[in-house]
Write a structure and sequence with these properties.
Length: about 550
């Protein structure tokens, strides 16, 4: 009967294993995989929306930087008569995405162009009928075009940015920059996401390769139409069939300040792949667990059969009145000797588990300490990265971003701020210095100029900004006019005393000129910068190595 009993135990155990372990584990695992899959979809949806806004912000910042450069050139043209054959190629060199640049007069005649190959065909061309001329001429505001194909300097796909320029208060023409759609923004570095950029008329400016849209296609007439309908309906986002192969994807839209619409597209397979991988891993773990439990039961059943055999031998001996076999206990006895190794093994296993738990707790404590250290290192690295992002790498002075953050900090002080002094400093004859002594000496001269400035201002309270090239801006809050003039005089003297030879200077050494102005609130800073710029030019005209206010 013993084999029959053993088979019965096997069948009962396997039935219990299926009912108590396998089925609940499968149900629980399926529920976890489904829940995680849905969470993945929600996360991808949220990341898609965030990516759309980030990309739109980057696009706005890129266009704003281009507009700012065009405005700087227009403002310089309002004060001086510029050589467009020099200024336009220089701007194109500083902003590589620009394909062509033109400057027109007030009647729409092209008076300058870049690159040089385009200038020969463009100068004298009448563009008064183009929107990029008419719109700024009529409204006085900047103009950002929709997608179109060029017809003057070529037949390339284009978008353009143009700004009006004035002279003596009168409209004097526009400065226009044309960009290739692929260079309008950086679509790389966004993982598996695809992007689509539409103009105000709903035509394609640019689409990444996985979407399959072409330049100037109407998106409403393509397979991308479901994404437009979802946005217009204002409903909660869901995966829609917009991929060229009919696949579904999450789509999020963000408007740019110029009226364009940027879409971030995330294929739904981004969530399906990891969910399937987790399901396969869970099935494998479940199979291993079932196999291990079955092997353990076989071993336990054999041990139980041997113990039962010993007990059966003792019962037979007692029933027959025979002497118990040697080594068998008499009367009411504890567990047979055959199970004692099991008890010892359990005790040994318990001891080992205690040691293992202690080691695990120690390992976790060490890991938490390591994580805390690495977190602090990461925070320090982020702080250093933020500092580097706000600093000019050559001179250590603040860059434009650093200057903007400094001004925002001043604005936060509100009425407690008081006055802010603005000093615009330009190294005299710096181009001639570079040409004679070389760029390395020029870089060292700029660092020396910053050292002379910092020697006279307060560390942390005042801002030293590299405005561009050899020009620097110093912002000094909370000081009066007399103190500012003393600081300007000290900076001039400090640089002069460093006795840096400059044979092309009328003073025989490296000097600078300073324009000084006062602002009595953060809102007046731009006007003060203009006054300081005018004062700087007066100082230049008076012989340099001086300051004006």
């Amino acid at each position: 009967m013993q084999p029959a009993v053993r088979r019965g135990l096997y069948r009962q155990f396997l039935g219990l294993l299926v009912m108590a372990v396998v089925l609940p584990s499968l149900a629980f695992g399926a529920a976890m995989v489904l829940a995680r899959y849905r969470a993945e979809l929600d996360e991808i949806d949220a990341r898609t929306a965030a990516s759309a806004h980030v990309l739109a912000h980057e696009l706005d910042e890129s266009l704003a930087a281009l507009q700012a450069s065009l405005h700087v050139l227009a403002a310089a043209g309002a004060r001086h008569r510029l050589d467009w054959s020099v200024e336009l190629p220089e701007l194109q060199r500083r902003y590589p995405p620009i394909l062509t640049l033109i400057a027109t007069d007030a009647r729409g005649r092209v008076i300058g162009a870049a690159p040089a190959a385009a200038a020969a065909r463009a100068v004298g061309l009448d563009v008064s009928d183009r929107d990029y001329f008419r719109q700024p001429a009529r409204s006085g505001r900047d103009y950002i075009s929709d997608a179109f194909v060029g017809r003057g300097l070529g037949s390339d796909p284009l978008v353009v940015v143009s700004v009006p320029r004035y002279r003596d208060g009168a409209f004097a023409g526009v400065i226009e920059a044309s960009l290739a759609p692929a260079h309008v923004y950086d679509e790389n570095g966004h993982g598996d996401y695809e992007t689509v950029l539409l103009d105000r008329a709903g035509r394609v400016i640019h689409a990444s390769g996985g979407i399959g849209l072409k330049f100037m296609q109407r998106a409403a007439d393509t397979g991308f139409a479901p994404a437009l309908a979802q946005r217009d309906a204002g409903a909660a986002r869901r995966a829609v069939p917009v991929m060229p192969d009919g696949g579904h994807a999450f789509v999020a839209a963000a408007r740019t300040r110029g009226g364009w619409t940027l879409y971030a597209v995330a294929p739904r397979e981004l969530a399906a792949r990891p969910a399937l991988e987790r399901a396969m891993s869970m099935i494998q773990l479940l199979l291993l667990a079932v196999l291990g439990a079955a092997l353990a039961f076989v071993w336990y059943a054999r041990m139980l059969a041997r113990a039962s055999s010993l007990l059966l031998q003792r019962l037979r001996a007692l029933a027959s009145g025979a002497e118990p076999a040697l080594g068998l206990p008499a009367g009411d006895v504890p567990m047979p000797e055959e199970l004692q190794p099991v008890l010892a093994a359990i005790v040994d296993l318990s001891t080992r588990l205690d040691h293992a738990h202690a080691e695990l707790r120690q390992s976790l404590a060490e890991r938490e300490h390591d994580v805390a250290q690495r977190t602090e290192q990461l925070r320090a690295a982020l702080r250093e990265l933020d500092r580097v992002a706000c600093t000019d790498p050559l001179t250590g002075a603040l860059n434009r971003r650093g200057r903007d953050e400094f001004v925002q900090a001043l604005a936060a002080q509100g009425a407690r701020l008081g006055s802010v002094a603005v000093l615009l400093l330009d190294v005299d004859h710096f181009k001639a210095y570079n040409d004679r002594y070389g760029h390395r000496a020029g870089d060292e001269a700029l660092r020396t100029a910053v050292a002379a400035i910092r020697a006279e201002v307060r560390e942390g309270d005042d801002a030293v900004v590299r405005a561009g090239g050899e020009e620097f801006c110093v912002l000094i809050p909370g000081v009066g006019r007399a103190r500012v003039l003393n600081i300007a005089r000290a900076i001039l003297l400090g640089l002069y005393r460093r006795d840096i030879e400059h044979r092309d200077s009328e003073h025989g050494r490296l000097t600078c000129s300073i324009g000084v102005a006062m602002a009595y609130s953060v809102d007046e800073l731009d006007a003060a910068m203009d006054r300081a710029d005018e004062a700087l030019y007066r100082a230049k005209r008076r012989g340099r190595n001086g300051f004006c206010s």
